[in-house]
Amino acid sequence: MFDIESCQRPTMTPTEKTDPARGASKSSRRRECRAAAMQFLYMWDVNTGDDRAGALLSFFSTQEHPREHYAFAEELIQGTLDNQAAIDELIKTNAHNWAFNRIARVDLAILRLGIYELLHRRDIPPVVTINEAIELGKSFSNPDSRRFLNGILDKVKDSLDRPARTAAEDK
Q: Residue 9 in 3-state DSSP?
């Protein structure tokens, strides 16, 4: 299991909303949730079972905060797994000269999460999704993964029908 605390937390700016219960910025909490989601997706990929609900319960019971804290992570996990077949096809299509089965499992979890966000979370600007995926790669993968992650996610971003730097009002 990965250590969530190894994620770098961004410094809070005065314009960021804070979580009164924790004093953390919304972006910091989301980064923490993305790390947890990526960890679960990695775990699920290397040890897939039939009981997703049980696996989620077990996973969140090992985390630092109560499960409610990770509501965003759970949304990302469920959405990514529900759309995994289509997401994997996009990865295969955009990973030129790279066999799907040779992609590092950590990078695959990051890509799946990022592509889910790009395709289905219109409330998150695409450039934010890509930046967060690169940060996950810096924290959990090897130094070369940044270029690989950025290349594939940037190709998917370019195929979207929305602006790269703004979020839509709906999810």
A: coil
Axis crossing angle, helix 126-140 with helix 26-46, rounded to the nearest 10: 60
CB–CB of 77/40 below 8 Å? yes
Average per-residue pLDDT in the chain?
86
The predicted pLDDT at position 96 comes to: 86
Nearest Cα residue to 106 out of 157, 37, 156: 37
DSSP string, 90-132: HHHHH-TT--GGGS-HHHHHHHHHHHHHHHH-TTS-HHHHHHH
pLDDT digits (tens, 9 = 90+) for 50-67: 899 999 999 999 999 999
Buried b (16+ CB within 10 A) or exposed e, 125-164: bbebbbebbbbbbebbbeeebbebbbebbeebbeeeeeee
Beta strands in 12-57 (DSSP E): 18-19, 24-25
Query: Would you say domain 23-158 falls under CATH 3.40.91.80?
Result: no
Q: Give the domain ranges of the chain.
A: 23-158
